[in-house]
Structures are given as structure tokens and as C-alpha cells.
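Example for tutorial group B:
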């Protein structure tokens, strides 16, 4: 059942003793909600109030806020052009706007009362994936706040996503209804089509619908690779048949469940973040 949510509503003190859900926030993703708003240089209080309101709406007994801290060392070591197509501001006014915005974003970890996780060279996605695999089973349900579609692979009966930008809840049921794939098949489709926003190139000629159809048919990357070469004269089939190495690399970049530990330990502090995570 979809909950009503209004981040401007007055917050009343809830009865936390009845709450047993986990809320995990993709902090950098959420912060971009304010980049194009007038208060882009002073959104800290709104950010904090939004998290508090979400925790109340989703009856969270615990809230963990995860921040990116630079680009992923793990993915940059594997793919130098990772996120390389993201445009940097050029005009002086725009540069100043981004500086002011990131000054607020970088100050948030010290201002939040909630648990904060931020590790140099590690992205929030990998931390989120680790938490859903190792902490979520202690709670009735886990809600992840993010608009990042790569996180759809984490969805199951007890893990859902709230996209605050589209005001949309992504559950196991809605994911199946919208895309006719399971979460693991959705991940496979992303491996095939790539992720343009992160500059991860997919198989040329294959967009979301073809990728999802291939994922439904083959179920796993191993089965897809075993099926190559696939018969067919279409150019996209030829590209797929020639794309073995690209698919293997894309899985290492995109499969969060399988590679989140590798990605976390590749950060600046090696195994230390895992030691901290295991104490959660």
C-alpha cells in the first residue's frame, strides 16, 4: 500500500517502539533534489527534515544515510572512462552554484543525527548493497530512498525502493508489472544495454526492451554467455555475439550484490569499511 508523504508536514513524535523497518538513504542522489531549487546553497535543514519525514512515513526503527565519497576506485581501476561523460559546469555563475551546493552536501554528515556511512573511493550503491544483504534480515522491511535504477536489482519481497523525484515506490510487484522481469533479470538487462549515465557502454543496437527480452530468455549472464553465438543476421545479434568480454566487464561494474565487497575494499581504507559495516 502506497503511503502518503509530505516533507513539509509538521512532524509529530511517533511511537518508535512499534516500528521495525529499516530506511537506507542514497544521500547524494537525494541531495540533487535541491540543486535546481532556490535554496541550493542552504538546503541542509530541508534535507534533514525530509529524512525524518521519510523515516516516519516508512515506520523506520533505524535510518542509515550513505554518501558517495568521490568516484569508485574499484570501477575507475577497471574502466578509466567511468562517469567520464558527465559534464562539468563551465560558466562562472554555474561553477559558483555547484561549489555552494557541494559545500552544503559535504557538511551534511556532521549535521545528521542518523547513522552516516561515507568512505573515500567508495560509492553509496555498494554500501547500500552490502547493508541489504547483511542487515536487512533483522527488520520487517527495508526501504531504500533513491532514483538510481541500478538499485532495482536489490529489490525482493522485503526490500523496496522509494524514488522521491517521481514519488514512485518500486516493489517486487511493481517491478514485475512494469518490466516483466525479476530483479536479477533486470540487472542482466542493464549489463546488456549498459548505463549511459555512468558511461558504461552496452551492446550496440540493444536498448532496454531488447535487453529485457534477452534477460527473460536467458535468466543469467552465464546462460547467456553459454548460448553465444546466437543465430541471426541482425546487426545487434552480431554485436552481442562479439560482446563476450564487454558483458563480463559490465557485470563487474553493475552487479552490486556480487561485487560490493570488492568495490568497498578497493577504496582508500581497504578492509576498514567492511570492519565498520560488520559492526552495524
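The residue assignment follows.
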Amino acid at each position: 500500500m502506497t503511503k502518503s508523504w509530505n516533507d513539509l508536514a509538521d512532524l509529530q513524535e511517533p511511537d518508535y517502539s512499534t516500528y521495525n523497518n529499516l530506511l537506507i538513504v542514497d544521500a547524494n542522489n537525494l541531495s540533487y533534489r535541491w540543486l535546481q531549487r532556490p535554496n541550493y546553497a542552504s538546503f541542509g535543514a530541508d534535507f534533514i527534515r525530509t529524512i525524518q519525514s521519510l523515516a516516519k512515513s516508512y515506520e523506520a526503527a533505524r535510518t542509515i544515510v550513505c554518501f558517495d565519497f568521490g568516484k569508485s576506485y574499484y570501477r575507475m581501476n577497471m574502466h578509466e572512462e567511468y562517469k567520464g561523460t558527465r559534464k562539468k559546469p563551465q560558466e562562472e555563475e554555474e561553477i559558483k552554484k555547484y561549489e555552494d551546493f557541494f559545500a552544503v552536501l559535504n557538511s551534511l554528515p556532521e549535521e545528521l543525527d542518523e547513522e552516516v556511512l561515507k568512505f573515500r573511493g567508495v560509492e553509496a550503491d555498494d554500501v547500500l548493497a552490502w547493508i541489504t544483504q547483511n542487515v536487512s534480515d533483522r527488520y520487517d522491511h527495508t526501504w531504500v530512498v533513491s532514483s538510481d535504477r541500478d538499485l532495482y536489482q536489490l529489490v525482493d519481497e522485503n526490500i523496496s525502493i522509494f524514488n522521491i523525484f517521481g514519488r514512485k515506490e518500486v516493489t517486487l510487484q511493481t517491478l514485475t508489472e512494469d518490466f516483466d522481469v525479476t530483479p536479477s533479470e533486470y540487472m542482466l538487462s542493464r549489463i546488456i544495454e549498459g548505463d549511459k549515465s555512468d558511461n558504461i557502454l552496452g551492446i550496440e543496437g540493444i536498448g532496454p526492451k531488447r535487453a529485457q527480452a534477452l534477460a527473460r530468455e536467458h535468466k543469467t549472464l552465464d546462460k547467456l554467455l553459454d548460448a553465444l553465438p546466437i543465430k541471426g543476421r541482425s546487426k545487434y545479434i552480431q554485436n552481442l555475439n562479439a560482446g563476450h568480454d564487454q558483458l563480463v566487464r559490465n557485470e563487474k561494474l553493475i552487479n552490486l550484490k556480487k561485487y560490493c565487497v570488492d568495490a568497498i575494499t578497493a577504496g582508500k581504507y581497504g578492509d576498514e569499511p567492511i570492519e565498520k559495516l560488520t559492526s552495524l
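The first strand starts at residue 21 and ends at 26. Compare this with the pattern of hydrophobic and polar residues in the output above.
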